[in-house]
Specification:
By secondary structure, the protein is mostly helical. It folds into two domains: 375 residues, no CATH class; 113 residues, 2-Layer Sandwich (Transcription Regulator spoIIAA), CATH 3.30.750. The chain is built from 22 helices and nine strands.
């Protein structure tokens, strides 16, 4: 059991918050760039995710900030609305909608996503993280026109990333974990410091110098007034524009879905298996987005990359997420020039390990061993996320999972124990609790294969709901059984199946007197 006092676990939470900060910094900037928004807006969202959302949230390990999954929506919204201050009004609307969703207790939606899809989401994100960090790990200059990609590799970046990977792998060894200083000085911190030292060493050395987009880049301002000047207020007149409400509701739904899926995934990764109150999480995210819209930040969700980095770095309570927000604020104001010395190759090494841990081969093998019903939705989710985007991948995985469930329901609407059946005994078919119209074909095929002159028991005593179409099939089988000399016993059908199908058949089709029909009806014992 973890002591939830924010000061009781600082020995673990403080180092973890530093790792999360180092992971969050380039992600905040990169997502802002991909969203077509001011770079500082990404930092604002990260700061609010730590200082506002984390204290309000009930998630012990979740970290909130700008999300890559919203980048495309944000980019299109800014273009449609024409100005970033106008877009900020839509962010406020999104926050208000999320608060309403929390009040209406819509947080249970996340529980309806199967674990195969959630694990597929984690693996897909891990693969994307891994692939996207490879160019940074080798210092690849995408603007350089070369015939051979190897010519675009910067040796110093490759050295920093390889050395960083070596340090992180070393830090994972048990003999290193047994050393007391490694609980305070985390591997990613060592990687970043090493990267800065090597960057300074390589300055001025032709072919080895790291410049431009090979380094972290955040705005550098002078004084408090310059720093505050980077915050942006919304255009309040935009609330008269109907378009911001459509965009705001869209962002609220997408952000809430991403958050709830991240909460589910984070709780699964939590070594203490704590459960996050989802309605409270929606309230916290909504409050965060309202504040973010008021001061110029991007929309916020709980994000799996930073959350998993928090877990893997030993974080125990939400103090880690809160401290990471404080570090973003302090660093953006006080030491932007120092942060701009960090090579992206060093951060790439950290993220390569994070990506690998999310998509471990052992986890993929474990899903394979669970069978096709689990593995296929998992694989479709992974491929969908890697080849399209996060939301499309989740949607595809969910569709496949639902189809798999429907297919299972179609195949197994009843139970017949062939292992204990002996020739000459009555054939007993027990129907499941719910028999839907999807089961019609399977039931019809089974009844059609029953040979003449046999005894059959159809047992619906445990059935809670049976579709009328299936009842019609049973009534038709009553008639068919009479013509094939099949002795039929129905159990539990009193209120759903007609008592006179055989008699009606005798009278209307064979045109025999009801006396004959009554004799035939005696073949059936009905309970």
């Amino acid at each position: 059991m973890v002591n939830q006092n924010p000061f009781a676990n600082l020995k673990q939470d403080a180092p973890s918050s530093l790792v999360v900060f180092l992971v969050a910094l380039p992600l905040c900037l990169g997502i802002a760039l991909a969203s077509g928004a001011p770079l500082f807006s990404g930092l604002i969202a990260g700061i609010i995710g730590g200082l506002i959302v984390a204290p309000l949230s009930g998630s012990p390990l979740g970290v909130s900030g700008p999300a890559a999954g919203l980048a495309v929506i944000v980019y299109g919204a800014i273009e449609e609305l024409g100005a970033y201050p106008t877009f900020l009004a839509a962010v406020i609307v999104a926050g208000i909608v999320q608060v309403l969703l929390g009040v209406l207790k819509a947080g249970v939606i996340g529980y309806y996503f199967p674990s195969s899809v959630i694990k597929g989401m984690l693996s897909g994100i891990g693969i994307i993280i891994f692939l996207k960090q490879i160019p940074h790990a080798f210092g690849y200059d995408s603007t350089q026109e070369v015939g051979n990609y190897f010519d675009a590799i910067t040796p110093s970046a490759a050295l920093i990333s390889m050395l960083g990977l070596g340090i992180l792998i070393l830090w994972e060894r048990q003999f290193m974990k047994n050393l007391s200083f490694t609980t305070i000085i985390q591997g990613p911190l060592v990687v970043v410091v090493t990267g800065i030292v090597l960057k300074l060493y390589f300055d001025g050395k032709e072919g080895w110098e790291l410049v431009g987009d090979q380094l972290v880049s955040i705005p550098v301002t002078e004084g408090l007034s310059g720093f505050i000047g980077q915050f942006t207020t919304p255009d309040f007149s935009a609330f008269l524009n109907p378009a911001i409400y459509t965009i705001g509701i869209t962002m609220a739904v997408v952000a809430s879905l991403e958050t709830l899926l991240c909460v589910e995934a984070t709780d699964k990764l939590d070594p203490y298996k704590r459960v996050t109150p989802t309605n409270r999480e929606l309230l916290a995210q909504g409050a965060g987005n309202i504040v973010s819209g008021l001061v110029g930040g991007l929309p916020i969700t709980q994000v799996i990359v930073r959350s998993s980095a928090n877990i893997q770095s030993g974080g125990r309570t939400k103090a880690s997420a809160t401290l990471h927000g404080a570090l973003l604020l302090i660093s953006a104001f006080a030491i932007p020039a120092v942060l701009n010395l960090i090579p992206l190759a060093a951060l790439a090494a950290v993220l390569l390990i994070v990506g690998y841990k999310l998509a471990k081969p052992s986890m993929i093998i474990g899903m394979w061993k669970k069978g096709t019903n689990e593995f296929i939705p998992f694989a479709v989710t992974v491929l969908g996320i890697v080849l399209t985007d996060l939301l499309m991948g989740i949607a595809l995985g969910l569709v496949v999972a639902i189809v798999s469930i429907l297919w299972d329901n179609f195949k197994v609407p009843y139970k017949f124990d062939i292992r204990n059946y002996k020739a000459g005994d009555p054939i007993k078919i027990e129907f499941s609790e719910v028999v839907s119209f999807l089961n019609k074909a399977s039931i019809q095929q089974t009844l059609d294969t029953i040979p003449p002159k046999t005894s059959v028991v159809l047992d619906a005593s445990q059935t809670l709901r049976m579709h009328p179409d299936v009842n019609e099939i049973i009534e038709e089988f009553q008639v068919n059984a009479a013509t094939k000399d099949i002795t039929l016993e129905l159990i539990g059908f009193e209120a759903t199946v007609s008592e006179t199908p055989v008699a009606d058949f005798e009278e209307q089709v064979l045109q025999k007197p009801r006396a004959t029909a009554s004799k035939v009806a005696k073949l059936f014992k009905k309970k």
